[in-house]
Amino acid sequence: MDAVTTALPTRRLGRTDMHITRVGFGAWAIGGADWAVGWGAQDDRDSMAAIRHAIARGINWIDTAAVYGLGHSEELVREALAGIPLSERPYVFTKCGLVWDEKNRMASPRQVGAPASIRREIDASLARLGVERIDLYQMHWPAEDGTALGEYWGALLDLKREGKVRAVGLSNHNVAQLEEAEALGHVDTLQPPFSMIRRSVGAAEVPWCLAHETGVIVYSPMQSGLLSGNFSIERARALPKNDWRSRNVEFTGEKLVRNLKLAAALKPIADRHHTTVASVAVAWTLAWPGVTGAIVGARGSLQVDGWIGAATTELGPEDLDEIAAAIKASGAGTGPAEFGREEVGQ
Predict the structure, then answer these.
(1) Residue 219 appears among annotated catalytic residues
(2) What is the pLDDT of residue 315?
(3) How much is the pTM?
(4) Which of 84, 152, 163, 184 is most buried by its number of CB atoms within 10 A?
C-alpha cells in the first residue's frame, strides 16, 4: 500500500521506495504505565485522538514497537487507523528483539535475537496491527541472549525476501555492528537516539548512514520532553514513580539544570521562526546531513500541534551556530554540537 498523500515535505527513506515526512508519530508513551519503561497513566482515547490528529496534519508514518505497553501500543495503532481507507493510511514501522515476561509485566524485557523468537514476534505484531505486511521492521537493541548479529540480521533479511516486511533496519546499533550487518545485506534504516543533549551518534553513526544510503529516523529529539519548552524543575520533581523519567539522570540535579538552560536558549530562535521551542529542537536534528526524519511522541492532539512545525522549519547557518554556542554555554549533554565539528560536553 502507498502512504497517504501529504502536503508536508518528504524525503526518501534510504534506498527504499518510501518517502516519509520529516517528522513521524512516536507511539512509545501511548503504551501506558503498566510495564517497566512506561510514561505514567495514559488515556487510550487521547492516544487515538493524537494519532488521528497527526495524520490529519499530514504526518505519513507511525513508529511503534511490540514492547511498548507490551503489545498495547500496536493494538492502539490498529484501532486508530481502523476507519481510514487503506490507500490513505500512513506507513507503520515497528520493532522486535525485546521479549517480556507475561507473569511479571514490570520486569525489564530481555534482548533476544533468536530467529525463532523473531518469527513469533512478527506474527504477533502482524496480528496486533491487523496488517499483512509491516512497512519497516527493526531490531530494537543488540541481542544479549548469545545470538550473533549475523543470525538475527539474517532473520530480518529473510522476512524481507518473503514479503512479510517492506524494509528492515537496526535500532541502537553502533558503526561496527552496522558494518557487520551491511556485509550480509543492506541496512535500510538506523533508528538511534539523537537530540541537542544526546548527540553522540552525530559523530559516527549518522555519517556512516549518509555514506551508505541508509535512512536515519532519530528518536527522542526533544530528549523525552526536556527540550519541549514546557519542562521545569518542579515538573521533573512531580513525575510519578510509574514514569521512567523519574529515575533518569537527565531529569535530576545539575544535569536537569543544564538541560533546561539549553531549552531556554532556544526561545529567541523559535520566536524568529514563529514556531515553538519544541519545533526548533526537532528541526535541529533534521538539519544534520543524513537524518531522514525524526520520531516525535504525543499523548494528545495539542502536543502534536506543539511540534508539527518542525516538519517545515528550516534552520539556517546562523541558527545552527547560535544553537552550538548555547550547547557549549549550557554544558548540556555530550557529542558534536554541529555536523563535522569535534565533540563537546561532559
Answers:
(1) no
(2) 97
(3) 0.92
(4) 152
